Amino acid sequence: MSEFQEVSKQSGVHPKPAGLVLQYGTAGFRTNAKLLDHIMFRMGLLATLRSKTTKATIGVMVTASHNPEEDNGVKLVDPMGEMVSPTWEVYATQLANAEQEDLLAALKDIIEKEAVNMSQEAKVFVGKDTRGSSARLSQAVLDGVSALGGHSKDYGLVTTPQLHYMVCCQNTQGKYGEATVEGYYKKLCQAFIKLSKNASNCTDDQKHLSVDGANGIGALKVREMESHLKKELHISLFNDGSEGKLNHQCGADFVKVQQKPPTGMEISPGERCCSFDGDADRIVYYYSDSEGTFHLLDGDKVATLISTFLKELLTSAGLDLKIAVVQTAYANGSSTNYLENTMKVTVRCTKTGVKHLHHAAQEFDIGVYFEANGHGTVLFSKAAEEKIQQLAENSSLIDEKKRAALLLQNTINVINQTVGDAISDMLLIEAILAIKGMTIHQWDAIYTDLPNRQLKVKVSDRRVIDTTDAERRAVSPAGLQEAIDTLVKKYRKARSFVRPSGTEDVVRVYAEAETQDSADDLAHEVSLAVYRLAGGVGGEPKPLH
Ligand code: G16
């Protein structure tokens, strides 16, 4: 039987509901799990074609990350562990939306456009999160790969960043590390332990961290990793999935958006805590002070901590490397101000979605990229890595330079450069705090966030909202940006923008201002403007107080 006959036969087992149209969004397809079986099968097909064209291993991760348990989704991973290229996102959408009888034509169209050599071998790595639907959906991906004669390796339950890491290791013939979960723990934890040895007088209290696993895959993987940490970090794990529901009242997205601690976690004053999201590619930190006030340290604070640390090390090592921080419109105005005016680093702003930040960060020797929601990592150019490596191996160096070079080398090894990674980011942050002898309160005090608020508005078709200037301004519907401008003028130090979400069927609204009441009022007023001008559904948004 030819491969196309096999595709036809198998696609009958994974039929597309007629008329259903889905888009490859901010991070792949994402919707209610019941609607995704055909998408998964077809992404198995697409990954196989992508593997044939790149002559490399491709990754497919079954997850809906921060979305509710009922949803699911799929993220495609390119050969170096990065997000799939924009052209292939378009193919993904075409293939996903072809009606059942048009599937072969859509497939052949991609084969022709990309001049795919169908006799080339293909290999696809598949991973999944802990959602109830993930086992069935990842089987559909595997069916898609085998229908086109590709080889697959099923990694089973892994975090999204772990799958990205495996793909990169595989395609670099082990130069980036070993393509196993065990290899991942070994590489990261060894680097973390070496970094931690540079922390003088670290008490047991300072080595303690409370982790909210969002009742997801991150919790399982933290447990698995613990023995590799050799007691250099003592983790108390909450929301480990044994009772609660995935992402429900917990996890990085809940904590960031609600600006409150997750349920199911006990927090003592001053204690360092962090939350992962549903597939462990985001992390946020927080603590409560002696008066019980909650303090959030989001992706912006993480980027500031990491870039300060790296800049200091570059100075000590005498290395002239250009470091930049990449953010999105959600970055708190205070963070951008601090980075540009106090730290004097270059700051770039891109559209939401790590794929955009990742590419912008690649333009620098060292690119630190973080979304405010805690999704981010650090990229080192090849040249920067080589300079650091040479310096670390130079035996004639004086102590301070040598120490800085070795710290930089181990920092590179603890970081997962393929994509934002909650586990890797956590280890790096913990090492930096230990080395600098810094409490979470001192870290928080580097700058003070402007009060802010994020809201969601339901509209009948969120695509009516179009934006420009890295999503900071709306170009449609008519009158919306003017309305926002007028509202923003009412408040001091205010800023607001709206954008259609690429992972949920909502419009997102962001506002910041001098006081929390002003930020809340502005966010509400902008939500009303969206509701009225962009076809809101389900009743007008209510004021927050
Ligand atoms: C995904 C993307 C992130 C993005 C987030 C929210 O995160 O990977 O880069 O910030 O969605 O996107 P949107 O506002 O378009 O819904 P995750 O962690 O859910 O995969």
Q: Give me the secondary-structure category.
A: alpha/beta
Low-confidence stretches: none
Total count of helical runs of at least 4 residues: 18
Number of strands: 19
Instruction: Report the biggest beta sheet as strand number plus sense, adding barrel if it closes.
Output: 5 strands, mixed
- What percentage of amino acids are in beta strands? 15-25%
Percent range for helical residues? 40-55%
What distance separates the N and C termini? 66 Å
In angstroms, what is the radius of gyration? 23 Å
What oligomerization state is this entry in?
Answer: single chain
Overall pLDDT level: 96
Strand order of the largest sheet: 1-3-2-4-5
* Net shape: globular
The hetero molecules present are: 1,6-di-O-phosphono-alpha-D-glucopyranose
What does this structure look like?
One of its GO terms (biological process) is carbohydrate metabolic process. The active site is at 65 (phosphoserine intermediate). Residues 183-284, 298-437 form the Phosphoacetylglucosamine mutase AMG1 domain. Its EC number is 5.4.2.3. This protein is α/β, with parallel strands linked by helices and 545 residues long. The protein is built from 18 helices and 19 strands. Strands 1-3-2-4-5 form a 5-stranded mixed beta sheet, sandwiched between helices. A 5-stranded mixed beta sheet has the order 7-6-8-9-10. The chain has a 4-stranded mixed beta sheet with strand order 12-11-13-14, with helices on both faces. α10 (299-317) packs antiparallel against α14 (399-414). The longest helix is centred in the middle third of the chain and has 19 residues, at 299-317. Residues 26-27, 65-66, 277, 281-282, 352-354, 371, 373, 375, 501-504, 508 line the site of 1,6-di-O-phosphono-alpha-D-glucopyranose.
